[in-house]
């Protein structure tokens, strides 16, 4: 078990630097949402309750209640995850650490097993992020199941067959140097139908700036990441099967994800996605490109979470590949719902919709067709 050889203030600063985006920590954390006053009370109760739960204490050790850190992960001003980090004092005066996570029944000893590869601050950051990631995936799986039972999207919301939303997480932006570390897809019509998410161990270190965005680090990839060639081959086969069956491919920022996937295929001597589908060039609906063509490439509107704030009121962004698939689906639906007429106006100068929707209906609001979406996406 690692010994704490840093003073609380120094460790706090190390934790702030080690935690990915979205986390904050403070010795006196208070929620930003006034309606969530119960949050701080709940966390402090859990800090008190952590003593009997710290089963890894040796005889004579005790939790130092004079030093506790409260952590929170915020989304849109709401605190959704939290943990208590505290000091253990042994009879000889040495300090060690414990962590109690708010949203899951986690074995504290699991934290210390994770520390084989990390300094204390980095180990805490890793444990918090991976536990939160597991919570994210559980949340999105539950959301997808619930939406399949009670669809949030109306029937015929999309002008065509079902959509297949594809997303990746990577080590960076370069097709030459960087690797795909997660690939996910979501098949949906007016409700989610199937989905899949796979981690890939790329065999190269995860850069710190990429980890700060996606929360995926070397330890997670070593323990849960699959073989690059086999995992990617299986995932792309499943995607290609749905596309051959008529699903429309949807990728946010396709100019990034698809070239990286093609580069990975070349690297591992795999057939690219287009060849698996049986086409020379993939046709892709890109919600981000559509938004930029309609409104210009405004600063701050170049990410799916930013577009979700504009087009999906109350959206909760989850920065996992599967979570981004879900958000992308609803961003596309929001664009069509809010900006359908604007999309059509880019393709017709008259006041009818005969050529844009096939059959003119007097007084009907013009609706985009698939051709419009593909053209605005550059496909």
Quick structural overview:
By secondary structure, the chain is an alpha+beta fold. The chain is built from 14 helices and 9 strands. Residues about 1-5, about 25-60, about 90-95, about 105-115 and about 350-360 have low confidence and may be disordered.
Average pLDDT works out at 75
The string of secondary-structure elements, in order, is HEHEEEHHEEEHHHEHHEHHHHH
Beta-strand level of the residues, as a percent range? 15-25%
Q: How many structural units, i.e. domains?
A: 2
The main sheet orders its strands as 7-6-5-8-9
Rg result:
24 Å
Shape: globular
Describe what you observe in this structure.
With 379 residues, this protein is of the alpha+beta class. The chain folds into two domains: 8-130, no CATH class; 151-376, Ribonuclease H-like superfamily/Ribonuclease H (Nucleotidyltransferase, domain 5). Helices cover 44% and strands 18% of the residues. Helix 11 (304-311) packs across helix 12. Residues 1-6, 26-58, 88-96, 103-117 and 349-361 have low confidence and may be disordered.
């Amino acid at each position: 078990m690692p010994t704490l050889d840093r003073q609380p203030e120094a460790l706090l600063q190390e934790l702030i630097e080690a935690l990915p985006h979205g986390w904050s920590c403070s010795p006196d954390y208070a929620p930003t949402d006034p309606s969530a006053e119960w949050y701080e009370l709940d966390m402090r109760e859990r800090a008190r309750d952590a003593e009997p739960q710290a089963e890894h204490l040796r005889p004579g050790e005790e939790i130092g209640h004079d030093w506790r850190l409260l952590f929170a992960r915020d989304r849109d001003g709401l605190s959704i995850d939290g943990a208590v980090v505290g000091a253990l004092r042994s009879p000889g005066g040495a300090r060690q650490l414990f962590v109690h996570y708010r949203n899951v029944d986690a074995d504290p000893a699991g934290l210390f097993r994770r520390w084989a590869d990390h300094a204390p601050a980095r180990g805490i950051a890793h444990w918090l992020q991976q536990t939160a990631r597991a919570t994210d995936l559980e949340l999105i799986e539950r959301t997808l199941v619930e939406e399949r039972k009670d669809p949030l999207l109306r029937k015929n919301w999309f002008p065509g067959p079902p959509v297949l939303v594809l997303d990746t997480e990577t080590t960076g932006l370069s097709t030459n140097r960087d690797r795909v570390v997660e690939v996910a897809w979501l098949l949906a019509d007016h409700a989610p139908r199937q989905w899949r998410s796979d981690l890939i161990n790329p065999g190269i270190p995860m850069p710190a700036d990429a980890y700060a965005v996606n929360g995926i680090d070397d330890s997670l990839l070593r323990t849960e990441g699959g073989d690059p060639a086999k995992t990617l081959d299986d995932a792309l086969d499943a995607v290609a099967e749905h596309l051959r069956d008529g699903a429309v491919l949807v990728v946010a920022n396709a100019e990034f994800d698809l070239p990286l996937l093609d580069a990975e295929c070349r690297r591992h001597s795999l057939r690219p996605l287009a060849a698996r589908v049986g086409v020379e060039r993939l046709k892709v609906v890109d919600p981000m490109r559509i938004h930029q063509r309609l409104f210009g490439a405004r600063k701050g509107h170049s990410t799916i979470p930013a577009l979700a704030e504009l087009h999906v009121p109350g959206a909760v962004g989850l920065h996992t590949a599967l979570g981004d698939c879900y958000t992308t689906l609803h961003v596309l639906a929001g664009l069509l719902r809010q900006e359908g007429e604007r999309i059509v106006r880019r393709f017709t100068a008259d006041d009818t919709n005969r050529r844009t929707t096939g059959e003119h209906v007097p007084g009907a609001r013009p609706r985009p067709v698939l051709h419009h979406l593909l053209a605005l996406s550059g496909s």
